[in-house]
């Protein structure tokens, strides 16, 4: 036999990793665990436990406490008690603790890797080479943010107690993604691991305590969805950070609506893997392996939809099938396997039933006959390729969360973009082309938070991760991830006023008004809506009277309804030109707008004085502040431009700030001109199109604006103004699936309505919970608003051969 023949006939022998240390840890605890609260183990109050299995074999690993409300109470109390001292310790001290945690993970890396593989069923190769090193990296990186917090996040404060709920697909890595930034920046945490995979979180909490992490900074309460729900509902939790299914994400959004809790959601995905005909095909085949068979496809950003350019489709699929035949499925501790077990029989059944649905819909399902599944009691599913898939079919739309790849073809780049974006999700995408211009051309057109060019599933603590659309909101990692655990210091109670004082009508203002009255005819004229660049009558033809605070009639505005909101949203959706314009071009338009407003400042001040019955000086001050704010956002338009990250690989990641799309904005009653400009300004500056509901009591300041808008080169549909009853218009905006974000300032009940009604398409919301902002204050301008007006897309570009 020749050496070549010998190699071809060689087979793999099992190469099991030694699991003694992990077994010894389980035994030390009698394979029975309580919660880890306030630096100590505590039995669950109810005494109820659930069983944790090894997915590879079905073997019982441990009994773990099922947490209830009393356990959550105790954990939140411990976190709350610990937080002041943890914050007072200062960033430099916290940095030392996080650095110690990174070292602790490195010292125990083998134990963590083995326990994670046992508990989750994923290959030890992955836990050893990816999960655990990335966990250490996350703590190390965030030690740095703690060290730099005072200077880099000056003016920002931690939120307090954070409730974190993580899934089972990356149990320890998700813990790190959540815990590291939260505690680095001075918060304390109650973490609820997933019920299938709680063990590494418990090990981590125990070892963190031994490494000197103060009691109560990190608390772990185990249990199922009921435990998670109790954490979500706890009144002393200031923020919920969740990773998991879109369905549960929605229920958490509904449960936290109106409570003032911050929320970040990392949800599902159906990410495209796009291969152009000029791609390195062998490289792309290996990419597919990492995209969909990594962690058995149980990855939120798995490249589960293969889109191949038509000319290479047959060749690529043939290569892929050959590669699939060489994949090895086996128990997680075998170092030679490519794919391990599915986490639980429930998940396995879900995958099977989805694939069955695909078969019924006429898809072709292919599984390599060469790949044998181990018969050792675990939950296994073979690598699967599905072709003949219609874009609207179940398998092309539903997240399968298993090792199942669906394949489709496209002809042109535009078609690839259309197919890629044809999903309610927007987490990630992978683009394969040797032409850098093409790859960088398509990346901004993909509606998702992460794009990997000629790569897939790259993660790093310095690069933000998170989705667009129904994949959730908020970012983890990077500077943008750090902000998710902070609040602007001025955003708290300090800078907020109970009510804006309304002064008595000033004689001087009334006198000056007489100069303008003849031209505008206050009472006779009904101000129309402003939709698609044109003044429009309200659909119902109705109007509503507007009064000054004293009750004096001052005019009429159109009484818009749901249909008008729909028209305004559709005009805004169509005005995509604004998003495509350069920041430079947008800056020019906004400068022009500010100049034109400035030219009419006296008129606006006089109208404002009359309509709000404030004195002339106050009105002038508000108009001046509005003009100045508009100039400020004109200045920002070409400056809020992202960053280049340098993660530890040969390559860069471009963090680009992109507009959200169509933003609905409901303005408060106070400071009717300044508040409107303060909200519309940042949204427009960053390329969003806006549907604004102006102050309900003083809408005429907004309707006066359209003459200014019309003369300022603002493209039609970019800014739309709908007047009418807030209680009728706001739900229509909140429920509209073509509105990407909704900002609401004014009454607390409106904030709650917005948060509750926005769950359909998981809009990004930005609300004041009825705490009146001082619109003249510096805190009503700048970063907080810009951050809400953009979403970050990270484009990874590895380079070299
Ligand atoms: P899930 O969303 O139910 O579970 C994730 C976490 O949320 C777990 O810790 C769970 O205990 C907790 N949870 C469940 N209900 C809750 C509630 N009402 N309030 C608060 N916390 C709650 O995910 P599951 O059932 O394990 O998986 C189902 C599907 O979800 C998967 O097939 C997959 O499609 C998707 N999924 C997506 C993940 C992602 O990373 N995006 C991770 C896990 C699942």
Descriptive report:
By secondary structure, the chain is α/β, with parallel strands linked by helices. The chain folds into 3 domains: 19-243, Aldehyde Dehydrogenase, Chain A, domain 1 (3-Layer(aba) Sandwich); 272-466, Aldehyde Dehydrogenase, Chain A, domain 2; 529-640 and 656-792, Aldehyde Dehydrogenase, Chain A, domain 1. The chain has 28 helices and 33 strands. The strands form 8 sheets. A 10-stranded mixed sheet has the order 14-15-16-13-12-17-18-33-27-26, with helices on both faces. A 6-stranded mixed sheet has the order 9-8-7-10-11-19, with helices on both faces. A 5-stranded parallel sheet has the order 30-29-28-31-32, with helices on both faces. Helix 7 links the parallel strand 7 and strand 8 (188-192). Helix 5 packs antiparallel against helix 8 (199-210), helix 19 (562-574) crosses helix 26 and helix 26 runs parallel beside helix 27. The longest helix is centred in the N-terminal third of the chain and has 29 residues, at 124-152. The protein is globular, with a radius of gyration of 28 Å. Residues 492-524 have low confidence and may be disordered. It binds 1,4-dihydronicotinamide adenine dinucleotide. 1,4-dihydronicotinamide adenine dinucleotide binds at residues 165-169, 192, 194-195, 224-225, 228-229, 232, 243-245, 248, 251-252, 267-268, 300, 347, 350, 399, 401.
């Amino acid at each position: 036999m020749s050496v070549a023949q010998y190699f071809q006939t060689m087979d793999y022998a099992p190469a099991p990793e030694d699991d003694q240390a992990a077994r010894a840890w389980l035994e030390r605890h009698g394979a029975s665990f309580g919660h880890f609260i306030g630096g100590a183990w505590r039995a669950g109050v109810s005494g109820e436990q659930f069983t944790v299995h090894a997915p590879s074999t079905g073997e019982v690993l441990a009994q773990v406490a099922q947490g209830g409300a009393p356990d959550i109470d105790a954990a939140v109390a411990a976190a709350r008690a610990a937080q002041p001292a943890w914050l007072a310790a200062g960033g430099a001290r916290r940095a030392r603790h996080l650095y110690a945690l990174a070292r602790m993970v490195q010292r125990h890396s083998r134990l963590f890797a083995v326990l994670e593989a046992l508990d989750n069923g994923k290959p030890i190769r992955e836990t050893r080479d990816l999960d655990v090193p990335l966990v250490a990296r996350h703590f190390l990186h965030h030690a740095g943010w703690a060290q730099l917090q005072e200077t880099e996040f000056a003016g920002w404060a931690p939120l307090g107690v954070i409730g974190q709920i993580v899934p089972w697909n990356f149990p320890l890595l998700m813990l790190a993604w959540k815990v590291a930034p939260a505690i680095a920046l001075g918060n304390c945490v109650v973490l609820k691991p997933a019920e299938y995979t709680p063990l590494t979180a418990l090990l981590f909490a125990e070892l963190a305590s031994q490494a000197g992490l103060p009691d109560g900074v990190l608390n772990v309460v185990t249990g199922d969805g009921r435990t998670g729900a109790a954490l979500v509902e706890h009144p002393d939790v200031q923020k919920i950070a969740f990773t998991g299914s879109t369905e549960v994400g929605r229920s958490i959004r509904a449960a936290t609506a109106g409570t003032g809790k911050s929320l970040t959601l990392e949800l599902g995905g159906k990410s495209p893997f796009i291969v152009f005909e000029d791609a390195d095909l062998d490289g792309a085949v290996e990419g597919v392996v990492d995209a969909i068979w990594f962690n058995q496809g149980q990855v939120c950003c798995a490249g589960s939809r293969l889109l191949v350019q038509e000319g290479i489709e047959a060749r690529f699929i043939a290569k892929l099938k050959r590669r699939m035949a060489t994949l090895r499925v086996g128990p997680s501790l075998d170092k030679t396997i490519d794919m391990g077990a599915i986490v639980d029989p429930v998940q396995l059944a879900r995958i099977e039933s989805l694939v069955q649905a695909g078969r019924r819909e006429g898809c072709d399902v292919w599984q390599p006959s060469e790949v044998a599944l181990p018969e050792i009691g675990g939950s296994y599913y073979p690598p699967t390729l599905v072709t003949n898939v219609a874009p609207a079919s179940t398998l092309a739309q539903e997240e399968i969360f298993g090792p199942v790849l669906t394949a489709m073809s496209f002809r042109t780049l535009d078609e690839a973009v259309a197919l890629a974006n044809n999903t309610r999700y927007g987490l990630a995408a992978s683009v394969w082309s040797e032409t850098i211009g093409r790859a960088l051309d398509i990346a901004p057109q993909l509606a998702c938070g992460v794009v990997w060019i000629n790569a897939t599933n790259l993660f790093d603590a310095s690069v933000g991760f998170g989705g667009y659309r129904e994949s959730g909101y908020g970012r983890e990692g990077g500077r943008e991830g750090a902000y998710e655990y902070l609040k602007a210091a001025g955003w708290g109670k300090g800078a907020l006023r109970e009510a804006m004082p309304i002064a008595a009508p000033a004689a001087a203002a009334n006198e000056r008004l007489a100069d303008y009255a003849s031209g505008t005819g206050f009472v006779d004229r009904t101000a129309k809506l402003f939709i698609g660049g044109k003044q429009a009558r309200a659909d119902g033809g109705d109007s509503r009277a507007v009064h000054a605070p004293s009750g004096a009639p001052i005019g009429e505005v159109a009484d818009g309804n749901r249909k008008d909101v729909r028209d305004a949203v559709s005009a805004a959706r169509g005005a995509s030109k604004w998003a495509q314009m350069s920041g430079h071009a947008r800056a020019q338009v906004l400068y022009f707008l500010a100049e034109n407003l400035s030219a009419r400042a006296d008129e606006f001040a006089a109208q404002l004085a009359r309509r709000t019955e404030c004195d002339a000086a106050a009105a002038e001050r508000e108009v001046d502040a509005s003009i100045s704010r508009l100039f400020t956002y004109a200045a920002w338009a070409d400056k809020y431009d992202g960053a280049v990250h340098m993660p530890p690989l040969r390559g860069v990641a471009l963090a680009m700030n992109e507009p959200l799309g169509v933003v609905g904005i409901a303005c408060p009653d106070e400071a009717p001109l300044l508040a409107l400009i303060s909200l519309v300004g940042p949204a427009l500056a960053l390329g969003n199109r806006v549907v604004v509901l102006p102050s309900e009591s003083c809408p005429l300041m907004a309707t006066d604006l359209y003459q200014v808008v019309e003369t300022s080169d603002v493209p039609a549909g970019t800014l739309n103004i709908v007047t009418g009853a807030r209680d009728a218009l706001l739900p229509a905006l909140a429920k509209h699936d073509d509105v990407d974000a909704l900002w609401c300032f004014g009454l607390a009940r409106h904030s709650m309505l917005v948060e509750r009604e926005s769950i359909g398409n998981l809009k990004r919301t930005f609300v004041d919970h009825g705490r009146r902002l001082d619109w003249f204050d510096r805190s009503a301008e700048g970063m907080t608003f810009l951050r809400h007006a953009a979403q970050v897309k990270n484009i990874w570009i590895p380079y070299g051969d």
